[in-house]
Amino acid sequence: MQPVMDDEEDESRADVSGEIRLPATLAGTGPLPDKAEIVIVGGGVVGLAIAYYLARRGMQDVVVIERGYLAEGASGRNGGGVRQQWSTEINIRLMQESVELCRRFAVDLGVNVWFRQGGYLFLARSTAEVARLERNIALQNRCGVATRMLDPEQAQDIVPELDLTGIVGASYNPTDGILFPWPFLWGYARQAAARGVKIFTQTAVTGLEPAIVASAAAGGTGGFTVHTPRGSIKARRVVNATGAWSPQLAKLVGVDVPTYPIRHEICSSEPLKPFLRPMVSELASGLYCSQSMRGEIVGGVTLPGHESTYAMGSTLKFLSTYARRLVRLMPILGDIKILRQWAGPYDQSPDGNPVLGPAPTHPDFFLACGFVGHGFMMAPIVGKLYAEWLTGGAPHEIFSRYRLARFTDGSGAAQPKEDFNIG
Ligand SMILES: Cc1cc2nc3c(=O)[nH]c(=O)nc-3n(C[C@H](O)[C@H](O)[C@H](O)COP(=O)(O)OP(=O)(O)OC[C@H]3O[C@@H](n4cnc5c(N)ncnc54)[C@H](O)[C@@H]3O)c2cc1C
Fold first, then answer.
1. Ligand 1 centroid – CA 49 distance (Å)
2. Around Cβ 385, how many Cβ atoms within 10 Å?
3. CATH code for the domain in which residue 136 is found
4. Per-residue pLDDT tens for 63-118?
5. Environment class of residue 112 by beta-carbon count within 10 Å: exposed (0-12), middle (13-18) or buried (19+)?
6. pTM > 0.70: yes or no
7. Is residue 2 part of a domain?
8. Ligand 1: does its nearest atom lie under 6 Å from the Cβ of 264?
9. Least-confidence region, from 124-128, 164-168, 379-383, 414-418
10. Is 9 a member of any domain?
11. Residue 344 CA to ligand 1 centre (angstroms)
């Protein structure tokens, strides 16, 4: 049995020298161990957050297996937005805790993630959107989030460059923010590895073989043999943190996960002198943009008729739609040069919320997927709560609320709907 520690008891301080030294296993070298207590498949932010928090709680017999490089999936392709403006209490409260973890990240993990709390400004172009924002604000305020409703002129006080034509209102929470995604993963990876977690990149999981020792009804404590081209590991528990590829991994044990990949495009401009503090998001078009600490304008827009695809190509249609919407909202950006454009997969779940907890037929196969367009911001708190549970703590409410069976047993339909699944 592994020792279990509270976070507060972990006295090891992070190396804050700023140098990022990753262990040799991250280069895909070294032999795989024969066995492990937990194998986490997927080296994105979700898998690495769970691994880090497991290690912090004293569980060292943990292996992370990533088929490419860390941040190869959505975690290395996203906008880095972190917000508490949601429409259900559970997501608001989760994100309050995640924001706190993001705020402490640099000190706790010893890497600068350029987290900047410049707020999130959501812009409404109709009275129906204003009513929606007002409803959400009332709930957010009850939870202790200081979001407030603004008239267009007050929104312009925050972003003077806005063209107010057609804007009828806005919501603004000053403690939402943005971060730089990549070092976030490096921080988790380095600190997990320093505490004994073995992380293997360039290693795909190609098979999951349930051990035939106990039936699911008897508790299914047999675990799995995890097969890769570099060898196999016997694992007592497996966590599926493969993002948009989670249905494929789950299929290896005959579990149906009803999420599907949706390509989202995003781009980044040349660096500009700092002028834009908040993330700005337009509800109607799904346009969002923020200015990074390096000065780039990073943003995207929702294209109608999203394809379900793993293709990661970029399109001219995205660029022209984004350019039109951005310049309508902030004409000052008319001459901006776009330097990079890329795409990544949302792991779209049917109700927009994640899929967590064990698969009903395989109690040792845990799901951590379906995070749509908000997995980065949720990863810190979900990773922490998962680790608490897997090391013997009581399961948080999210593990029953967001369980896989909600899509088949009707319980999902009875839950409050999250309708702020945007930007
Ligand atoms: C354009 C865009 C913008 C976004 N903006 C935001 C935002 O502002 N804020 C926010 O919170 N979220 C945002 N998101 C969503 C966020 O990026 C994701 O929800 C989050 O990164 C999901 O993390 P993950 O670890 O679950 O998945 P991923 O990062 O995709 O990681 C899964 C990993 O599993 C690996 N893998 C797959 N199959 C196997 C296998 N068989 N064996 C081994 N490894 C395997 C993959 O290579 C991949 O690295 C955005 C996403 C996109 C695409």
1. 12
2. 21
3. 3.30.9.10
4. 999 999 999 999 999 999 999 999 999 999 999 999 999 999 999 999 999 999 99
5. middle
6. yes
7. no
8. yes
9. 414-418
10. no
11. 8
